[in-house]
Amino acid sequence: MGPNQGFGGTLCMIFLIALFASGSGENDRDFKMCGTWCHGNGLLTLAHDLKRGCGTITISANESSLSIRGEITAQCENSSVIKLGPSPEARESPFCVYWEPLLDQLWVEVNGQNHTLCWPSGLQENCCTDLSQGGNKGTAIYGILNATQRDDILSYQRRPAYEFFGGIVNCKNVFCDEASQGSGDKVNMIEETVMRSKVLGNVVLPCALSSVVEMKEGFQGYNIILPVPRGVPPQMIPSVHLPSCLKPPEKQKVKVVCTYFKIQYLIPGEF
Ligand SMILES: *[C@@H]1O[C@H](CO)[C@@H](O)[C@H](O)[C@H]1NC(C)=O
Ligand SMILES: *[C@@H]1O[C@H](CO)[C@@H](O)[C@H](O)[C@H]1NC(C)=O
Ligand SMILES: *[C@@H]1O[C@H](CO)[C@@H](O)[C@H](O)[C@H]1NC(C)=O
Ligand SMILES: *[C@@H]1O[C@H](CO)[C@@H](O)[C@H](O)[C@H]1NC(C)=O
User: Fold this and answer.
1) Is the distance from the beta carbon of residue 45 to the nearest atom of ligand 1 less than 6 Å?
2) Ligand nearest to the CA of 47
3) Which ligand is the nearest neighbour of the Cα of 25?
4) Distance (Å) from CA 23 to ligand 2 centroid
5) How confident is the model over 130-172, as pLDDT tens digits?
6) Given the DSSP bridges, would you call strands 65-73 and 43-52 parallel, antiparallel or unpaired?
7) Angstrom distance (rounded) from CA 114 to CA 105
8) Which of 116, 118, 121, 198 to mutate for ligand 3's pocket (most ligand atoms within 8 Å of CB)?
9) Which residues of 5-15 are buried (b: 16+ CB within 10 A; e: fewer)?
C-alpha cells in the first residue's frame, strides 16, 4: 500500500471485529439472469467455458445442455461439463446464473442446486460488470423460457440463447460508493464482503482496511497490525490483540476480520 491510499491523515478511529459472515446482498454491479430451461427427457448437463476478459457472456440451452460461455472473469478460467442427472418429469428446470464481479465469483442454480463455476478469489480492482443484453436470437423448441435479468422480464418466448456485454469498472471504488450511499448497515456490508472474498491477511479498499485472521485449534492469540503508509507515527498505527479466548471452543476454525474505516464513508452515530 502506498501513501496515495490516503489513510495517513484521516486514519479512522472506528474499529470492529466480526466473527462470522452470512448472506449475500444484491448490488448494482452484480448480475442475475434467471429463466426456465425447457429440455428433453434424457440426461442433462451444465456446460461451461469461462475465460478472462471483458466481452460477451452467452447463456444458451438446448435439449440436453445448459451452457454458459464467454469472457467476463478477472482471474477465473474454467471449462467443463457437469452431469446434472435425469430430467425432471415436467421437462422444465428453473435456473439462475449469478455473477459477482467484485469477488470474481460465478455460480449457477439449476433445480434448486447451486454449482459454483468460479470461486471467490479476493476483491478485484478492475472487473467486468453492468452486463447489458445483446442479441437474443429467434425461438426454439428447446431453450430458455421467461428469461429475467435482475427480476425484469427479458422475454416470455422460448429462446435458444441470450447474450450479454460487459464493461470494465473499478469495482473497489464502486463498492465503496455503494457502501457509503446504501441505506443498510455499511459496516456489515463491508465486513461480509471481505469475509466472502475468502482472502486471509490484509485487504485494502478505498474506504477501509481489513485484516482477516483464521483462528484454528490451539489458537494462541495474535496481534493484528494493519499496514499504514510510511511516516505514520507509531502511536497512530492501528493494532489490536486477539486473545486466545476469542476462538469459540466448539468450532475448529473461525475467521475474524478487523476493519478500519475511513471516517467519511460512514455516518457517525449509525452504529
Ligand atoms: C447442446 O449444447 C451443448 C453445449 O453447448 C452441445 O455440446 C451439444 O452438442 C448441443 N446438443 C444439441 C442436441 O444440439
Ligand atoms: C443458491 O444461490 C442463491 C443466490 O446466492 C441463493 O439465494 C440460494 O439460496 C442458493 N440455493 C441453495 C440451494 O443453496
Ligand atoms: C471449475 O468448475 C467446477 C465445476 O465444473 C468446480 O468444481 C471447480 O471448483 C471450478 N474451478 C475453479 C478454479 O473455480
Ligand atoms: C412464463 O410466464 C407466463 C406469463 O407470466 C406464465 O403464465 C407461465 O406460467 C410462465 N411459465 C413458466 C414455466 O415459468
Assistant:
1) no
2) 1
3) 2
4) 10
5) 888 887 678 889 999 999 999 899 999 999 999 999 999 999 9
6) parallel
7) 12
8) 116
9) eebeeebbeee
What is the reported pTM? Answer: 0.85
- Which residue in 95, 112, 110, 100 sits closest to 147, CA to CA? 95
Measured CA to CA, the distance from residue 124 to residue 166 in angstroms comes to 15
In angstroms, what CA-CA distances link 80 with 12, 63, 138, 226?
46, 18, 27, 40
CA 96–ligand 1 middle distance (angstroms) = 19
User: Residue 7 has which C-alpha cell?
Assistant: 489513510
In the chain the first and final C-alpha atoms are separated, in Å, by 28
Name which residue sits closest to atom 13 of ligand 1, judged by CA: 63
Could you tell me if the CB of 231 is within 6 A of ligand 2?
no
Residue in this structure with the C-alpha cell 416470455, named with its chain if needed: 156
The cell for 16 is 470492529
The CA distances from residue 69 to 36, 113, 269, in Å, are: 18, 20, 46
Cα–Cα nearest to 73, from 13, 119, 132, 8: 119
pLDDT for residue 1: 36
Ligand lying nearest the CA atom of residue 90: 4
Count the alpha carbons within 13 Å of 105 in the hemisphere toward its beta carbon: 20
Please tell me if the CB atom of residue 23 comes closer than 6 angstroms to any atom of ligand 2: no
Pairing of strands 152-155, 208-215: unpaired
What mean pLDDT, rounded, does the chain reach? 83
Amino acid residing at 216 = K
Ligand 3 midpoint to CA 113 (Å): 15
Tell me the CA–centroid distance for residue 219 and ligand 4, in Å.
Answer: 54
